Amino acid sequence: MIELTRPYNFAILPHSTASRRIGINANLKRISLYDGYTTKPICAMKVLAIIDNLSNGGGAERLLVSLLPALLRRGVRCDLAVIRDDHDLAEELESSGIRIHKLGVERLWSLHSSVLRLNRICHRENYDILWGNSYFGNLNAMLLRLLQPKRRALVFLQSAGYTAHPPKSLGHFLSMKIERISGRYLSSRIVAVSRAMADDYRLAMGWEDISVVNNCVSVKTLPPPMPPEHRPATRRSFGIPEDVFLLVVPARFVPMKGHTVLLDALALLAKERAWRPFSVLAGRGPLLESLKDKAHGCGLDATVRFVDTLPQQHLFRMMQAADAVVLPSLYEPFGIAAAESMAMGIPTVVTDAYGFRDLVGEGDSAFKSLPGDARSLADALWRVHGDAALRAEVAVAGRKRIQDNFDADTIASAWHKIFAATIA
User: Fold this and answer.
1) What gap in Å lies between CA 303 and CA 370, rounded to an integer?
2) Which of 122, 203, 264, 372 has the fewest CB neighbours in a 10 Å radius?
3) Cα(241)–Cα(278) distance, rounded to whole angstroms?
4) How far from 40 is each of 20, 307, 343, CA to CA, in Å?
5) Cα–Cα distance for residue pair 300/291, rounded to 1 Å
6) Measured between alpha carbons, how far is 309 from 131 in angstroms, rounded to an integer?
7) Max alpha carbon distance in the chain (Å)?
């Protein structure tokens, strides 16, 4: 049952009138709707999510693939507007019933173009909430309120904050000022992806009222844990030796992901313990060539392989074939890749940094090292290597933590409450 306290738009489902029961209370302030055949709730809220792109490499984009279908199951009609022409994940979302508006704006700072195109969409659709995702998604949602003052603008903070990543250029400084002013005067509600993110923005922006809703993964749509006897064949399919200790690092090649620290740790292990795990670094980014040079300089050419971004299901198979997944981030707003790894029952190594603290908690759901500390990471990897029983225990604990706390249906319930409070 969906109970409504204000006028909404409803999608009429293809069932007979007799199969639908609508109850309206005496003072006409509350409506309850039921679907007699499927028991699915009729969409009671209309939300327009806005994001700069749908490329396959980022956590914000992967989040939408898990979260939007879960919101739809809870009665939230959530369309998606994509600013740029990067639509790697569009087919996956559309197959789940999510309608996508492709704005086709070439430059993200062409705000006049993106906001006017969004405004035309809003004239056709009676959205209740404009839900920003990422810096430019948030900025467009807030600026759109100038043309659509009856809509609510919900800001979702998922990028590295300004305390952890202070402005070092005039452009970055101006971006921060624009976000601070627009957030203060044009946002209806601000939500952060982790407690660390909320604290960062409170300190940097002076925003006090920030809610926290963690990211999520759809556990039921992820591959189940891979039986050990299937790993050799999977490794062969990727051209990886069957008998090596395999580490997989699914992360963009950007400074915050900590690849240089990982290479230093691998060099320490080779020098001090004569151990060279086979490491696959999967992703794209501006640091790729410099990381290749560093691996060569550390003498790791034979055991460190760089691969381009893989289709998501292929990446999952590679991760499952690994002995451990490693995310050596210097800071991380939340860590979708780590959550996916843990949910698939893979021993996962993270740093005790930023949003990872919300993800792994205080228990033994993942192996931990200090951020930016090659010695600490080397020690953690050696511990992972030396105790197969511990790897199995951590894998089970990690999967349970994601199932209990960060599954898409659980987080969709939290967002439903946020949306309802925003339009109340």
Assistant:
1) 24
2) 203
3) 9
4) 11, 43, 27
5) 11
6) 28
7) 78
Tell me which residue has tokens 């299937």. 230
- Are 32 and 22 a contacting pair, CB within 8 Å? yes
Report the pLDDT value the prediction gives residue 57, as an integer from 0 to 100. 65
| Beta-strand pair 152-157/189-192 | parallel
Where does residue 10 rank: exposed (0-12), middle (13-18), buried (19+ CB within 10 A)?
middle
- What is the C-alpha to C-alpha distance for residues 38 and 40, in angstroms, rounded to an integer? 5
Give the distance from CA 147 to its chain's centroid.
29
CA distance 84 to 51: 9
For the chain, 424 residues long, the average pLDDT of each consecutive 10-residue run is 38 36 32 36 78 82 92 93 90 93 95 97 94 96 96 91 81 93 96 92 92 93 92 95 96 95 98 97 96 97 94 94 97 92 97 90 93 97 96 96 95 95 90
